Task: inverse folding
């Protein structure tokens, strides 16, 4: 989509104060090297993700100076359990943040969820010219017994977090980042990567606890689909990056900083960096992270970090993706103040 008239007004990442390493004997030294982090952020047992998201929402409203009544739409994204089995966390977050009559929307698309939520908010603003701002939140808590943050997934280790981004129109108030482009590419052929050969169940966590994404990934690899996905998805990723650059009217050499998905070190160094560097060329600077994966909050957290790494007028690029499979590429620019 073309989003040259929209800007991020404020963004925040809230991480818990507590951190934990893996249990003794849970991971080998090779596992730690592959993952790339030795500690993960862990939220208190009495804190649910929507409560964390509500605090993040209040933070961006306060820092931007935007009143809750000015928000026309709130889009909340998540990957994992939100505290209740059948309810709308977006409505709760809006109410807790003092946003009473905006449209609350929930998005669940794993680690690409924050990017999809931002795109929905952007399209909503474009389609609703009388609206001034939209709020995007994401929050997850990857806790036992349903999830093992270190071992449920062989491509990521997971920290708890909440993020919030306030999106508005460029030139109306101060701007945190200009949203120059936000493009996506999907191939639904790969949706079974996250479910493998398992049968559908009739209850939550019906395949047992903790969730075992490694079993699904193993079935995906053994079917030959993983190798085929890499072969076919790399050209799609290249095309996506070039499309995002064209939409933003930016040359590859103009990109100063790149943020990648917060996956394992092996995935970032062995897959994403070589692929993106081949398209961008030169020696692009990549943002490093020490949080592990933040679930749906990955993309929004990277907006916070990339803003801190850009000088006024510089361009940054964000890459995100999730099992399913959908890739996101966005170009942002630090405003000249």
Result:
């Amino acid at each position: 989509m073309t989003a040259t008239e929209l800007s991020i007004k404020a963004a925040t990442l809230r991480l818990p104060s507590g951190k934990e390493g893996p249990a003794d004997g849970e991971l080998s030294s090779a596992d730690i090297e592959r993952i790339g982090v030795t500690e993960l952020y862990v939220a208190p047992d009495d804190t649910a993700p929507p409560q964390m998201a509500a605090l993040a929402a209040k933070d961006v409203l306060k820092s931007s100076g935007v009143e809750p009544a000015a928000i026309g739409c709130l889009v909340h994204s998540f990957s994992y359990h939100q505290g209740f089995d059948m309810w709308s966390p977006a409505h709760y977050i809006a109410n807790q943040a003092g946003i009473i009559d905006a449209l609350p929307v929930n998005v669940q698309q794993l680690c690409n969820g924050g990017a999809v939520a931002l795109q929905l908010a952007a399209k909503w603003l474009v389609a609703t010219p009388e609206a001034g701002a939209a709020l995007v939140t994401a929050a997850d808590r990857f806790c036992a017994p349903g999830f093992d943050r270190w071992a449920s997934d062989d491509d990521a280790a997971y920290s708890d977090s909440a993020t919030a981004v306030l999106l508005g129109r460029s030139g109306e108030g101060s701007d945190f980042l200009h949203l120059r482009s936000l493009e996506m590419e999907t191939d639904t052929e790969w949706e079974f990567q996250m479910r493998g050969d398992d049968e559908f169940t009739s209850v939550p966590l019906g395949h047992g606890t903790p969730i075992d994404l490694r079993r699904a990934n193993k079935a995906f690899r053994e079917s030959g689909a993983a190798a085929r996905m890499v072969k076919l998805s790399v050209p799609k990723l290249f095309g996506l990056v070039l499309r995002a650059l064209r939409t933003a009217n930016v040359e590859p050499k103009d990109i100063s900083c790149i943020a990648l998905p917060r996956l394992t070190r092996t995935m970032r160094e062995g897959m994403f960096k070589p692929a993106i560097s081949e398209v961008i060329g030169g020696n692009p600077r990549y943002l490093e992270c020490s949080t592990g994966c933040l679930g749906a909050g990955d993309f929004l957290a990277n907006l916070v970090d990339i803003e801190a790494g850009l000088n006024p007028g510089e361009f940054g690029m964000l890459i995100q993706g999730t099992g399913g499979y959908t890739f996101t590429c966005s170009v942002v620019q630090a405003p000249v103040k």
The helical segments are 29-35, 49-64, 89-96, 113-127, 213-222, 225-248, 265-280, 298-308.
